[in-house]
Amino acid sequence: MVLYLPVKEQLHQDELGDYISYGIAAWKLPALTRKPCAFVSDVTLDKKQAARLSWRCTVGQLDPRQLMDVVEDFI
User: Fold this and answer.
1) Measuring CA to CA, which residue among 1, 16, 74, 33 is closest to residue 24?
2) In sequence order, what are the residues at sequence separation of 6 or more whose Cβ sits closer than 8 angstroms to the Cβ of residue 25?
3) What distance in Å separates the CA atoms of residue 75 and residue 57, rounded to the nearest whole number?
4) Measured torsion, CA atoms of residues 64, 70, 72, 75, in degrees rounded to the nearest 10
């Protein structure tokens, strides 16, 4: 099983300054590792959208190798 979770990030861009964004991380269960098996940074500024996308990826058991493609379609 793969669990997808939104990850809050504090980021900085010269044009924007500091800002809060949410990425999506994939964790293989039941393995308890310190690092996700996949991660896409800076997906959305909206916490609810990140949570919804993470939930849909978990329910659909998305292959972690396809996470970037799904995020690109989402954006």
Assistant:
1) 74
2) 4, 5, 6, 7, 36, 38, 39
3) 15
4) -130
Q: How many angstroms separate the first and last alpha carbons of the chain? A: 25
Six-digit token pair at 10? Answer: 């504090």
DSSP string, 9-67: EEEEETTTEEEEEEEEEEEESS---SS-SEEEEEEES-HHHHHHHHHHHHHTT--GGGH
Residue in the structure block whose two tokens are 């939104």? 6
What are the pLDDT digits (tens) for 28-69?
987 767 788 999 999 999 999 999 999 999 999 999 999 999
Question: How far is 13 from 55, CA to CA, in rounded Å?
Answer: 28
